[in-house]
Amino acid sequence: xxxxxxxxxxxxxxxxxxxxxxxxxxxxxxxxxxxxxxxxxxxxxxxxxxxxxxxxxxxxxxxxxxxxxxxxxxxxxxxxxxxxxxxxxxxxxxxxxxxxxxxxxxxxxxxxxxxxxxxxxxxxxxxxxxxxxxxxxxxxxxxxxxxxxxxxxxxxxxxxxxxxxxxxxxxxxxxxxxxxxxxxxxxxxxxxxxxxxxxxxxxxxxxxxxxxxxxxxxxxxxxxxxxxxxxxxxxxxxxxxxxxxxxxxxxxxxxxxxxxxxxxxxxx
Length: 268
Ligand code: SAM
Known about the structure:
The chain is of the alpha/beta class.
C-alpha cells in the first residue's frame, strides 16, 4: 500500500508512524508512506495556504489551489475511475463531517494500492476539495480535532495492520473487536471464538495470581472447548455492557441470544 499524506505540518508524522507495525510495514516494503508539505505548493512569499471564508464567519479556510496543485503531481487516475473502483486508488479528505471510519472501512482501504490523505486545518477546507478532488470524506469519530493529522495517523495505523504479512499472526487481526465473521483457526481454544462483530474477549497473562487478583479458572483448565465458551460469553457480556449497539449486527447462535436475554434481565 502506498499512502500519501498532505499536510501543513509534515514533521507531525515523524513520531506516530515510526513505531511498531507501521514502522515494520515500511521497512519491509509492505507500506510506503510519503508526507507532502502543502506549503511547497504555494506561490507567494508567505507560503499562504489559508484565506478568509466567503460570506464571513469565524476562522480561516484551507485554499483549494495548493491542494489541487499538490495532487496534480501525484499521477493519480481520474477521479471518476477512482470513485467507481475501476482503479485501486482513493483520495480521502479527513473531516469531522465525513463518513465514520470503522474496521470495515479499514478493510476496504487495505485492499487498495494507493491512498491519499488530505489533512484539513483551521475551520476546514474549501468545499471544492470535497466535491471535485477527494473521493470520500472520513471522520474518526464524533468530535472535532484541530487538524486531520491525528486522524490520518489513526487510519494509516488501522489499515497497515490489516495488510497481509504486517502482523506476525494474521489470524489475530481477523478475530479482533469489530471484525465481521469468525475465522476458524485450526485447533486450540482460539478456534471459533473470533469476534463475529462482538468486542474482543478479555486477555490475561502471567502471573496467574497478582496482588490477590486471580486469572479466571476456566483459562487454566487446558480444556479448549471450555475456554472457547468462556471467552465467547465474556465477549458477549462486554459487548452488552459497553457497546450494545454492536449486538444487532453480530452473528449469534440461539444459545448466545438466550444468554444475553438472561444477562439483560434485572436480578430479582
Ligand atoms: N469546522 C469544522 C466542523 O465543524 O466540522 C471543523 C474543522 S477542524 C477544526 C479542522 C480539521 O480537522 C478538519 O478540516 C479535518 O481535516 C480535521 N478533523 C477534525 N475533526 C475530525 C474528525 N473527527 N475526523 C477526521 N478529521 C477531523
